[in-house]
Each structure stands twice: as C-alpha cells, then as structure tokens.
C-alpha cells in the first residue's frame, strides 16, 4: 500500500469556525505548556522529559480542564509528539555541528492547526465528484463541515490521518490516503527519451529544441506587491489597517503559490506521461539562490543583481518540480536520470566532442572551440544529460568511435528512479 496526500478546502459556518479557532487555541496552549515544562525541568533539576512522560499526564489535564476532553486523546497526543519531533530535530542538528534555533513558544494566532494521527475521531463523507462533508467528533457534539476538493484515487482510498490547518483566514483539511500501487500508477501515452534543462529564460528546454515558457509569477505581481508593502509601511504597526494590508499581501503570496503549484503539477505530469526516459541535472536551489551580500570584512559584489536573480530562481520552483518528478516518474514507470552537475558540467560541455568550453552566464549560445559545434546553450545542456542517461559517466560509449583518452574517465554519481511497473523501460 502506498500513501498519498489530498488537501480539501473547508467551508465552516460561523459557529464551526469559532469552535475550530478555540480548539486550535487549546492545542497551542498545550504545546506551550509542554515546552515550558521541559525547560523548567532541565533548568531546575537537570532532567529531560520525554514524550511518554508528558503523554501520561494527559488524563490529569483533562480532569482539571474539561474543555480538553472534546479535542480527543489522539489529537492531544499528536500535539505533544509534534513538540517532541521539534526537540529531536534540534538535537540532531546540534550533533551535526550546526547552530539551530531552540524550539520556541507559539502564538495562538500563528499556530497552524492540529492533527489526528489515525482515523479515530473523524470521518470523510464524499458527496458527488467534488463535494463532501468532514465529520469531527462523535455524538451530538460532532461537527459536520462542508468541504470541496477531489483526488484521483477513487473510492478504494482509505483515509489514514487528518491535519486541520488555518491559512490566511481559511481552513483546510489535509488527509493522507492509503492506496494500492495499481491505483497510484499513471498511464504513459508515449515512450520518448528526452533530456531537459531547467532554467530562467525558458522554464525548461528539451534536447530537440522544444521549450516551455517561464510564467514568472512573482515578476508579474511585483508591482502590486510593492504597492501593498509601501502602504503597510506607512501604517502604525498593529493597527487595523496594518493587519488588513498584511492579510492582502498574504493572500497575494498565496495566489502566486497556487499558480506555481498548479503549473508544476500539470507540466511534470505531462513529462512523465510522454517520456520513458527523462534526463536532467541535479539542482541545488538553496545554493543557487545564496545571497551575494558577503560580510563586513569581505563585502559581496553586484548584490542587487544577484538578489533579482535569486528571486527569479525561487519563483521558478525548480526544487519543487524535481520533487514532483521523483514520485510521478515511479508511478508512470519512467526512468528519471539526474546527472551529477559538478562532475558532468552540462552547461560547459560540448554534446558533440565532449570537450569543456567555459562560458559565462550571459553567453546563451554554445560555440565549441574544439569542433565548432553551435547550438543554443540550454539545448546543448539537455543533449549532454540525455547522453549521460544512456551512458553514465562521459557518455562516450554511445558514440561509434570514442576517444581513447576518454575511456578511463570515472563514472558520475547519478540518481535514478527505478522502473517499478511493466511500462518502465
């Protein structure tokens, strides 16, 4: 059985919305109290409190505070487990030599929501293809909240857990579904072998010259974002108008994120449906979008220009696209090949003679100084990673007469998704 997540938009009435807000505030109170207990125990007695120690106290808390009873034992345990995971991540990073921030107290207005780790205490009731009802609780006090949304797994999908989140004034239900491998599989309509180069000028360029235009969501909304931020800067922090402009800015950012996510899902689905082999290079958007500001001793150069480039890199959603391709390729039986960028250097390597031709970022045309091969830079890179997909390393084994000095080159470290279905190649 596989697990897939589906998100639904909730439409609670005024009474239900107020009740969800109260429940979220109580979960936040429990989270902060558990965090304070851990801090006090270590400061006063040098003792570390575990998740099980705090879980065993929940019956006493519900006896003293009856309002916690309707939240459900499993949901309360999940909030404590959420804090425990924060501490585990903190200590793991400390052992790794990093400098992480200590788990912090949460404000009730910024607490994201709460979760049910199993199907107990709630039920998803579908009506038609897109509508439905989410029942939370049991008996007369149960809430029946209308929802909207759908998933592609049909009636055989079994709900596993539920997460209720609040975002920009709206409520959402994220449900993890247990589905079979047959239901997860995607039908492939073609068996192409394609190399893809992701970029900024064109969102993706294939080895055959076909390109997909970069929608540039942030650039199109930048004037409106700047206007809202200028208006908010002139308001008193914490005032009603300041909060109203903050909400408008958040909704605009949410719209940009929804447009990006919709575009990426459609494009990556089309890629895996038409390709039996899809080759691209490993990307590290976090490193690519690193600031050029530098330090006081060694200030950076062209900081504003690099900041604009970083904004475009993050707006393109390249990291999210690779994550989507990773699991969709498995579902479609497509072999996804990720070439080692540092070793292969696809943007500098010639796809014909395999020699390196250094180029600056401004040079968009590949002109080989050894064989004279000319091709658009991104298309040449896509062709290089496609050759590497068929012959990991240098790719020279795919040529009828490889150069002798290239035979002894070490193979690159590549990451591939296995073809797990009969449709795979």
Short description:
With 425 residues, the protein is of the alpha+beta class.
Structure description:
By secondary structure, this protein is of the alpha+beta class. Helices cover 41% and strands 21% of the residues. The chain has helices at residues 14-45, 51-55, 58-64, 73-95, 181-184, 217-233, 240-274, 285-288, 303-316, 318-332, 341-344, 377-390; strands at 2-11, 113-116, 122-127, 131-136, 143-148, 158-167, 170-179, 192-198, 202-206, 211-213, 275-281, 335-339, 365-367, 374-376, 415-417. It has a 7-stranded antiparallel sheet. It has a 6-stranded mixed sheet with strand order 10-9-8-11-12-15. It has a two-stranded antiparallel ribbon with strand order 13-14. The protein is globular.
Helix-strand blueprint:
Elements: E1 2-11, H1 14-45, H2 51-55, H3 58-64, H4 73-95, E2 113-116, E3 122-127, E4 131-136, E5 143-148, E6 158-167, E7 170-179, H5 181-184, E8 192-198, E9 202-206, E10 211-213, H6 217-233, H7 240-274, E11 275-281, H8 285-288, H9 303-316, H10 318-332, E12 335-339, H11 341-344, E13 365-367, E14 374-376, H12 377-390, E15 415-417
Parallel strand pairs: 8-11, 11-12
Antiparallel strand pairs: 1-5, 1-7, 2-6, 3-4, 4-5, 6-7, 8-9, 9-10, 12-15, 13-14
Helix pairs in contact: 1-4, 6-7, 7-10
Q: How would you describe the shape?
A: globular
Low-confidence stretches: 394-414, 418-425
Widest sheet, order of strands: 2-6-7-1-5-4-3
Tell me the Rg in angstroms: 26 Å
Q: Total number of helical segments? A: 12
Order of helices and strands: EHHHHEEEEEEHEEEHHEHHHEHEEHE
N-C termini distance = 23 Å
Mean pLDDT: 88
User: Would you tell me the structural class of the helices and strands?
Assistant: alpha+beta
